[in-house]
Amino acid sequence: MITVRHLNKYYIGEDGKKVDVLRDVSCEISRGEIISIIGPSGSGKSTFLHILNMLDTPNSGEIIVNGKNIQDKGYDLNKMREKMGMVFQNFNLFEHLTVLQNVTLAPIKLRGLGEKQAEDEAMEMLRKVGMADRSGSMPSQLSGGQKQRVAIARCLAMKPDVILFDEPTSALDPTMIGEVQGVIRSLAMEKMTMLIVTHEMKFARDVSTRVFFMNEGVIYEDGTPEQIFQNPKRAATRAFVHRIRSLVFDIVSRDFDFYDMTTQIKQFCIRYSIPEKMNDITHIVEEMLILLSKYDSPVLIEVNHSEMDYTSSVSILHRGESVSPLERPDADELSVMIIRGMSSDIKTEQTDEGVRLTFRI
Amino acid sequence: MRTTINELNGELVAAFEGRLDTAAAIQTEKDVQPLADCAGKNIVLDCSALEYISSSGLRIFLNVLKNAKAKGSRVFITGMSDDINKVFKITGFMNLFEFR
User: Fold this and answer.
1) Which of A183, A278, A349, B93 could tie B88 with a disulfide, CB 3.0–4.6 Å?
2) Residue B29, SS3 per DSSP
3) Taking the model in full, what pTM does it have?
4) Long-range Cβ contacts of B83-86 (<8 Å, 24+ apart)
5) Contact check, Cβ <8 Å, B54/A341
6) Average pLDDT value over all residues in chain A
7) How far, in Å, CA of A151 to CA of A48, rounded?
8) Residue A13: which pLDDT band, with cuts at 50, 70 and 90?
9) Nearest-CB residue to A286 (from B54, B89, B91)
10) Yes or no, beta carbons of B21 and A289 under 8 Å apart
């Protein structure tokens, strides 16, 4: 249905440097697929959607819709847009028109429907999104959730083959998110082809047949919701879906600022509401540093906390070493006891950079 | 980290306040020096304001204990928080000291 090949988009920043927004993005989207596009802010999600609808132009690459390159000269973009509807974050309703007029406008102007047929169809779409009883209202009389449902009805009135949703619930109060998601869920039951840029992870997991995790301008991981959310293959996907917050210390000298480090651990624990883990984390970091102080090799410490499942860990990479400092015969016994006592699980792995110990807190 | 030592009812009471970690250990070791002169007096290590103790801090406590025992004194610990208690448990220090 839609084939994207080697799509690139960049702009030149104020400092004259090239900033990549999309880098060599390729994918195949088939009829009936419901694809959620997730990823950090600035990862290119919305730009990708806008380019599919040619609301933004790529610097290079191809977009083939139903066998035709939409950038070819003479290609009827408006015709394509009739079949590729778009729902925006901020609804974009015509404020001077009633709900019904908002929904009938495009079918009358673009599909050439008579007023009566357009109204009948519009009422059907408004019923579908639960807004039929507000057909005579002005947009200003509606809540954000209601406006978005009207925007979806307006999109459906064009009988699209695919709908692109650009963060459809981001501008809504939390109380109104459910009603809009409910409408999208019912479209999913009808097998409407959809691409949904969203920050709502649970919704993405429930509604999608496929998930794109976008990161730094590329589709970094593409998989089923089960793969992306339960068993992501790549580290950045894992960090994103588990909402992992990190604190990193790269210690290259024995003269590092120990006070500053403990203060940062304290602030980190307070910021992410885990003050009860502060001492355990500090104990592990401090005792490990005592054990490692005998060696000159640099140490990389990462404190991680998942806001999704509330798990925390400390990961310590002893660069250039291959033996766990806990296993060395001359390891300080008191330090080892404290470290083992503070962690519920200790994993040791050999990496190209050195030995890495991960302590679950 | 602050350490104050007072004599109370014939006992030497050392009160610790703050975090007894690697960075604080050097100063604390100096601060507890007066306890070395404990002949005939028992020692109380008051931990009610102690927020944290690392292995460096435990070693200071252990040295106080060794020295006191050699001089026939007893060492009591009082006011341990849950965290300090946890550290004492996992290191076996619970079995070394007497508690009040």
Assistant:
1) B93
2) helix
3) 0.69
4) B83/A279, B83/B51, B83/B52, B84/B47, B84/B50, B84/B52, B84/B53, B86/A341
5) no
6) 94
7) 21
8) confident
9) B54
10) no
Residue-level length of chain B: 100
Helix (H) or strand (E) holding A310, with range, is none
Residue ranges of A 261-300 with Cβ closer than 8 A to chain B: 262, 279, 282-283, 286-287, 289-290
Domain B2-99 coded CATH 3.30.750.24: yes
CA distance B35 to chain A (A): 23
Instruction: Classify the C-alpha dihedral B61-B66-B71-B73 as positive or negative.
Output: positive
Class of residue A349 by CB neighbours under 10 A (exposed 0-12, middle 13-18, buried 19+): exposed
- Residues A180-221 have pLDDT tens digits of 999 999 999 999 999 999 999 889 999 999 999 999 999 999
Query: Is residue A131 a contact partner of residue A94, using CB atoms and an 8 Å limit?
Result: no
pLDDT digits (tens, 9 = 90+) for A150-190: 999 999 999 999 999 999 999 898 889 999 999 999 999 99
Q: Is B22 an 8 Å CB contact of chain A?
A: yes
Q: In this predicted structure, what is the pLDDT of residue A243?
A: 87
Task: Look at the alpha carbons of A186, A192, A195, A201 in this order and tell me if their dihedral is positive or negative.
Answer: positive
Tell me the average pLDDT across A266-290: 94
Residues 6+ apart with CB under 8 A from A173: A143, A144, A145
Q: What is the pLDDT of residues B2-40, one digit of tens each?
A: 999 999 999 999 999 999 999 999 999 999 999 998 888
Whether this model's ipTM surpasses 0.90 comes out as yes
Q: Of chain A residues 298-337, which have a CB less than 8 A from chain B?
A: 332, 334-335, 337
Interface test with A, best of B27, B55, B60 (most A CBs within 10 A): B55
Q: Mark yes or no for CB contact A338/B90 under 8 Å.
A: yes
Count CA within 13 A, CB hemisphere, residue B16.
29
A262–B90 CB contact, under 8 Å: no
Q: In A, which residues are within 8 Å of B51 by CB distance?
A: 279
Among B51, B52, B54, the strongest candidate for a mutation testing the A interface, having the largest count of A CBs within 10 A, is B54
